[in-house]
């Protein structure tokens, strides 16, 4: 996990999944909540995007909005597609949900520095032993959406801790 431009004012995080209507907008909302709860709102810039174009301009999947709302989350990002040129330039960390996402996004990186920005949410899943990814709930049922949210809450909380450990001037509550 590396970050260029250490003196840049904000740490920028981009969450990626396939469609940008289930997992990554949920991660976006969860990390924003965690950052806000830690008193770090001014230090972070958070966004999400999808690999595919299918849902650009749409609200998140209704099921993810409903399951998220039960946890007090406002999952309301408007879907957009990943833009390799702009997003590799703009973000410090690009967080993917599964190995397919990882392969697709790292293939679009044109430098080692950009490739190193791409990290897997699964590497921060500390409370779900053996989980290798955040599985796509789109073709699943309510339990799959709950699992996705559980995994993402686990991953975001430990990712924020890891970033905080690297950025010595962040003071978390
Ligand atoms: P997501 O889920 O990647 O978590 O947003 C999906 C949503 C839509 C599709 C695939 C995955 N789709 O093929 O339309």
TrEMBL record:
GO terms for molecular function: protein tyrosine phosphatase activity. Keywords: Hydrolase, Protein phosphatase. It holds the Pfam family LMWPc. The active site is at residues 17, 23, 136. Residues 11-162 form the Phosphotyrosine protein phosphatase I domain. It comes from the Bacteria. The keyword Aminoacyl-tRNA synthetase does not apply. Its EC number is 3.1.3.48. Belongs to the low molecular weight phosphotyrosine protein phosphatase family. This is protein-tyrosine-phosphatase. The lineage of its organism: Bacteria, Pseudomonadati, Bacteroidota, Bacteroidia, Bacteroidales.
């Amino acid at each position: 996990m590396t970050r260029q431009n250490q003196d840049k004012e904000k740490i920028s995080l981009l969450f990626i999944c396939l469609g940008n209507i289930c997992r990554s907008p949920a991660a976006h909302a969860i990390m924003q909540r965690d950052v806000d709860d830690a008193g770090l709102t001014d230090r972070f810039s958070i966004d999400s995007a999808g690999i595919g174009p299918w849902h650009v301009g749409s609200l998140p999947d209704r099921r993810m909005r409903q399951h998220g709302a039960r946890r007090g989350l406002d999952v309301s990002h408007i879907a957009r597609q990943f833009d390799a040129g702009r997003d590799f330039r703009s973000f410090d960390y690009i967080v993917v949900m599964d190995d397919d996402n990882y392969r697709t996004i790292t293939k679009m990186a044109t430098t080692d520095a950009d490739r190193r920005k791409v990290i897997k949410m699964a590497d921060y899943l500390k409370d779900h032993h053996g989980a290798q990814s955040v599985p796509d709930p789109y073709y699943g049922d309510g339990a799959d959406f709950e699992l996705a949210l559980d995994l993402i809450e686990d991953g975001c909380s430990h990712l924020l801790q890891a970033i905080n450990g690297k950025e010595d001037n962040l003071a978390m509550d």
